[in-house]
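Exercise: predict the structure of this protein bound to flavin-adenine dinucleotide.
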Amino acid sequence: MDKDVIIIGGGPSGLSTALHLHRTAPHLTPRILILEKEHYPRFKLCAGGLTVDAETILERLGLDVNEVPHVFADNVRFDFESKGLNIRNTKRHVLRVIRRDEFDHWLAKKAGSRGIEIRQGVTVKDITPTPDEVIVETDQGTYHAQIVVGADGSNGVTRRCVFPNAPVYTARVLEILTPTQPSPNYGEIGGWQGRGRLAFFEFSPVPKNIAGYIWDFPTQVKGEPMRCWGIYDTNILAYGKRPQLKDTLADEMKRVGFDLNEYEIKGHPIRWFSPENKMSVPRVLFVGDAVGADPIFGEGISIALGYGNLAAREISESIQRNEFSFRGFKRRVVRSALGQTLIARWVITYIIYPMKWRWFQILLWRVMKPVVIAVAWIFVLNWGKRMPTP
Ligand SMILES: Cc1cc2nc3c(=O)[nH]c(=O)nc-3n(C[C@H](O)[C@H](O)[C@H](O)COP(=O)(O)OP(=O)(O)OC[C@H]3O[C@@H](n4cnc5c(N)ncnc54)[C@H](O)[C@@H]3O)c2cc1C
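Solution:
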């Protein structure tokens, strides 16, 4: 056996699993191996919005995320056709925005400094669980492990090998980086002051069967202030006629003076959580996007970090018992604070997007503000501190 635990993918979910294992079962550290196909710092398409729960989980691992270059959003707006509700926390920022090349590289360095081995530039091609071991075929040879963790993201090979025919719930997402000021092509835009430390979510695409939103976050690239724009569509209204995602984003950017055609546009799917999604087979566990991110927003960094906490506990207990069925893993995830927020977010998704009518969206984002804020506070945020202490 090469290792007890092979983790496929060194993104937030894989690194969190390893860091939590190091915390809960330090004796296993030399028996953990992460296989990552890229070399850090590697590009990952992501807006980089870190919620309070991501910060809580990192803090409890003894990590100081202030070490990663970031900008803060002090206000977050949830708008429908430019009017809606504003969320502000007088004591702290509402969202921390990082770049994923920097954040993931930092997290990988922290794992390395705690003795966790990461082999970079190794692409996993195939996974075969057997009753006695898991065989992992890569472009650089074959590995054998007691346990494999599929942390290889929305398009991961682990899930494709283990559940080739499982239903897939994926969102379409496009992203663009722009300067902070509008395009000179559009001349002076009346009233445009720059959005500064405001993060925007705009739900006007919903009545057009795009079950999601457009975002505009403050960010930085190599210390230079920038904006990160994008559009997210869960695809749950895919049965209806929909405009092109790109055109819908272009219209919104044009409204505030940005010409989408001047910037490079990139897309990547996000697999989102549904209670139907499978989470394990004997000897193989899934974490992060390989199970599913938040369906409402596609928020997945905090979720990935949370899955890592639960997977580590499951792995250390199974090694203690020498029993690798992982039969109860899904039940334990669903009952955890992470599982409860995921189920709540899945229910909310199937309310706020199918109720796509303009009048309902106006009611939701402009009239029902206290209800929306209370639901967000109770069901969407603040689950990180209710996770098991690592
Ligand atoms: C456009 C966009 C914007 C987003 N914005 C946000 C946001 O603002 N906030 C937020 O919380 N979430 C956001 N997300 C979601 C977030 O990026 C993901 O949920 C998160 O990255 C999931 O982490 P993960 O570790 O599960 O997977 P990933 O981050 O995808 O990591 C998987 C890792 O596995 C490696 N890998 C893949 N295949 C193999 C293989 N065969 N062999 C070896 N290694 C492999 C990859 O190189 C990668 O390093 C966004 C996603 C997109 C697409």
